[in-house]
Amino acid sequence: MSGAVGRMADSGARAWGKPWGEPWRWLMAPSPADLGFAVRTSAAAILSLLIAMWMELDSPQWAPLSVWVVATASRGESLSKARWRLVGTAVGCCAGVALIAAFPQETGLFFVGLALWMGLCCGCATFFDGYRSYGLLVTSFTSAIVATGAISQPDHVFDVAMARGTYIVLGIACEAGMAALFLPGVRAAARARLPGRLRGLADRVASGVAASSAGRPDVEAESGLLADLVAVNARVEFDVLEMGAGQGRSADHARAALAYLLAVLARARSGVRGAALDRDLGAARRHIQAIAAPRVRDPFRFGSHSPRQAIEALHNGLRAALGIIGAWLVWEVTAWPAGPAFVSFVALVYGLLATREVPALASAGFYRGAMWCAAVAGLYVALVIPAVTSPECLVLLLVVPMIAGGLAARTPRLVNHAFAFNLFFPVLLGPSNLGRYDEVSFLNGALAFLAAVLFARLTFGLVLPFRADNHLRRTAAWVERRLRALARGNDRSSVPQWLAANADSMVRAVRTCRDVPRDEMLRYMGRHLDAMALGMWVIELRDAARSDGLPAGVRLRLRVFLRAWIRQGAQARDVARQVLRHVQRHPDVRPDVLMALRGLTEQ
Q: Among positive and negative, which fits the CA dihedral 532, 536, 541, 543?
């Protein structure tokens, strides 16, 4: 009997783990960090809702939405996101008021103006990294929410703008307060984490270079290192915010250290070994040490620029503008009473998804999360809210779905699902101090929400859709154009800027083009890595040709090579070989010039 029971238990355990137990592990057995994030953010959302209802605001559901928008697992990330959300909200409220004031009785002109404004914001957002991009997106959908919310009562547009701004400030303050309460000692941990992460990367780069010198070059290993370097570079701003004041120029030192590590990889790719690599590795480690022991009044500065994605920006801008005009036409043709809410939801979804790497894929998960959101909100409206007699009881009953949504937000495959659920669950419920609206009102609001998400999903898939093969070809053409342009006399690109932009572009392509056959992707990565190294050598030769530290004859030959490079690209390496044969006999040529020429000819 005991053996039978044991076999049944083993069978049950296997059934739990496979096939359906494992997908639900995020909910049934979350990690302490995931559970802490879900509980902390849910508490902040509930607190913001209670305060908004206590203040008797007319739409308190927007406060918890702001909490979920700015909430992240990292304290520094939340601070940066909140800061840019405040800026974007202020600008968006002003833009919404201006649109209503400019076109109070001209519906067509109003929506054309709104579409152009949203297209401009979504397009420009693609030109920035971090949460500067997010600030522009907040500007776009805040202006749409304010303007469409005041369509029926344009004289009250200022009141609508002030109310929306109040909800957002309240949500941000609650999230910040809970994070400070739940995350004690975050500053000390951040001060140890950033240099530790950089030291680990430096050790991995040194090991990778040693492996390649032993005759085992691995394109996938190099691309993995590049992905980690890009990820750490994206988090520098957040880590420094968590570290607090008194850290000198830690962000500049961190970016300088990453630039030297990128240079090590590029030089090793060209076959450089020995002292040159050790020099760059040593410089990177010195910058890491400067972070661990910051100097007072440190004068060090390191300039960096975010990569520009012009084609993606154009696509995002056009897609958002056409989407808003299309949503307006749907409302205009159908005379739908919930049309303003539909347009507002469309603008909000576009703002949330526009700068995702593949918006069409993100919108699919977002739509599934929206369906779950509407279903759970419907159960609450039909069964729970009628039995609730006070706001305190209501928020206690919201704890379970909010914590579940917070746990889903920490699961990579459910991020987009959770994004839709967490943001719009309180919005669909629409709690109010004056009572519960009826089921018909809920169904109208839920239908407008689901229709908006479905509309956005269709437009992301049909209007200028993302294609991996086109993206790879476009990226390869961009690399070739930029590689030739580096030799121009008026080009001011530095080695760190070139390496950082190309590393980011390559990592982005690898992430977004996963359906491309492996052999084709490896060939693309190999060509991109070679281009990174070639560009580094061209920049060094271009800068040497401008300096006065070389003999005039050597500088003249370098300019001949640079002109040939502009015309022929990589085919000009034969000219580089001729220049190398001439200048290596010259006694006053610097070693770095010889190294750059050898790197070009041996690539």
A: positive
**Residue 215: pLDDT above 60?**
no
Please state, in angstroms and rounded to a whole number, the distance separating the CA atoms of residues 41 and 172: 11
Q: What digits encode the pLDDT tens for the residues 523-568?
A: 888 888 888 999 999 999 999 888 887 888 888 989 999 999 999 8
Q: Which residue has the tokens 């939801």?
A: 345
DSSP string, 292-317: HSPPTT--------PPP-HHHHHHHH
- The token pair at 582 is 């001439």
59 falls within a domain:
yes
**By the 8 A CB rule, do 582 and 564 touch?**
no
* DSSP one-letter string for 208-266: HHHHHHTT---HHHHHHHHHHHHHHHHHHHHHHHHH-S--TTHHHHHHHHHHHHHHHHH
Say how far apart CA 268 and CA 208 lie, in whole Å: 9
- The dihedral built from the CA positions of residue 152, 155, 160 and 163, taken in this order, carries a sign that is negative
Look up the pTM and report it. 0.81
Q: What is the pLDDT confidence band of residue 1, given thresholds at 50, 70 and 90?
A: very low
The last residue of a domain, from among 462, 490, 512: 462
Q: Is residue 22 situated within a structural domain?
A: no
310, 292, 300: which is closest to 259 by C-alpha?
300
Choose among 277, 251, 253: nearest CA to 263.
Answer: 277
- Determine the Cα–Cα distance for residues 424 and 323; give it in Å rounded to an integer: 20
User: Is residue 96 within 8 Å of residue 282, measured between CB atoms?
Assistant: no
Tokens, residue 176: 């910040």
Contact between residue 370 and residue 453 where contact means Cβ atoms under 8 Å apart: yes
Environment class of 334 (CB within 10 Å of its CB; exposed 0-12, middle 13-18, buried 19+): exposed
Q: Could you tell me the maximum CA-CA distance found in the chain, to the nearest angstrom?
A: 95
315: Cα within 13 Å, side-chain hemisphere: 21
pLDDT, position 376: 95
**HEC sequence for 503-557:** HHHHHHHHHHCCCCCHHHHHHHHHHHHHHHHHHHHHHHHHHHHHCCCCCHHHHHH
Q: Kindly state whether residues 211 and 243 are assigned to the same domain.
A: yes
Which of 433, 462, 491 is at the close of a domain?
462
201 and 260 Cβ atoms separated by less than 8 Å: no
